Amino acid sequence: MRGDSNRWLELFLLTRVVAALVGSVLVGVTAVSAREVALIGACLAYAAVSCVAFAKVEPLQRSKAAWVADALGGFALIIASETWRSPFYLLAVTALVLPATTLPFRRAIVWGGAFSLVYFVVGVLTTLEANTIESAVRLETVTTRLLTPWLVAVALAYAQRLLDRLGEERERSERLAVQTERQRIAWELHDSAKQRVHAAHLVLTMVRDRVGQREGPLLDQALDQLSAATGDMATSVAELREPLDGRPLEQIVAHRAQELAGATRARIDVNGKAPALPPLVAAHATRIAGEALTNAVRHAGARHIEVRLDGDPDTLRIIVRDDGQGLPDELRPGSNGLRSMRERAATIGGRLDVAAGESGGTVVALEVPLARALQEA
Asked: If you average pLDDT over residues 63-82, what whole number do you get?
């Protein structure tokens, strides 16, 4: 089902229960006999079974066959009442909630029209008289009852379309905001921090031959760290400038893998497909996967690196596995990669696990629950 499916399901359940109770009360008020008791029992059973079925079995919420069966159940109660003005009319109308909010706008309108047409046929089969048009009051009542289901379907479908457009606009605005912030950080890294590191490296290189043998190794270590920092910043700038243009996550990660392939002899494979992601989640997940790839290429000495993306509408999973030398006993000074990845995972409500592989190497696993993120996006 499209966005806000839980809210529409709640509306369906609420209206179904209320309509069943009201219909049962109206039947009980008019007369109490074995027939009315049976009708009330059938009404309550129909409402209970349909509510439990649609609430517990999610595929039914998107099944046209289930929608048709649900509507036929309501029409059957109207026929059993032997009058087109049955108290169970509103109960039947509630069968429009799920199809009207799931189908595309035009199909939802057609579905509502078909519902009204079937109701007209049910009226003809029960107590709708041929001389209805001769009575203004009766004609108005029939017309109102015939148009009500169609208007309900139109209103619900239009509300869903507005929600879809609002969600698209919110996603676009969020993507632009994230991209603007990424571009700002990239500029600052490139124009300020990276240039300062370059300058420090040049200064230390100039004085390298002027220090004694005891201080030389320390200075060489400092130069190595500056070179590594320059490489890290170059990678970060490239990743930050990668546009968030709505592409699937697997395409962005595959593009990053192609960029890194030229800097390593390792084979890099990107497999699987990620579910739909809010822009903020996509941005952090991209950086986490990119950082894990970069670490495997630069520090692991791996021959094979595999990125696996999968999940479902409620969960995103990313696994980066390499057959390299594994995690060092001590992280190199100034290394903030793992900490940054964990902080990013925590920002989007995810969990990051970094462990040794079963046959060597390192496995980086990210899991992000999406239900809350998609609801707030």
From this structure: 94
CA angle 41, 17, 146 (to 5 degrees): 90
Determine phi and psi for 327, rounding to 5 degrees: -75, 140
Mean pLDDT confidence for 89-116: 95
* Residue where a domain stops, chosen among 106, 140, 168: 168
Asked whether residue 246 carries a pLDDT value surpassing 50, the answer given is yes
149, 168, 187 - which closes a domain: 168
Helices (H), the chain: 5-30, 34-56, 64-81, 89-93, 97-102, 105-125, 136-188, 194-207, 216-240, 249-261, 279-299, 337-347, 371-376
3-state secondary structure of 318: strand
pLDDT tens digit sequence for 172-219: 787 777 777 767 776 767 666 767 777 777 777 877 777 766 777 777
304: left (phi over 0), alpha (psi -120 to 50) or beta: beta
8 A C-beta contact, residue 44 and residue 24: yes
Residue-range definition of the domain harbouring residue 345? 247-377
Coil, strand, or helix at residue 108?
helix
Kind of pairing, strands 267-272 and 304-312? Answer: parallel
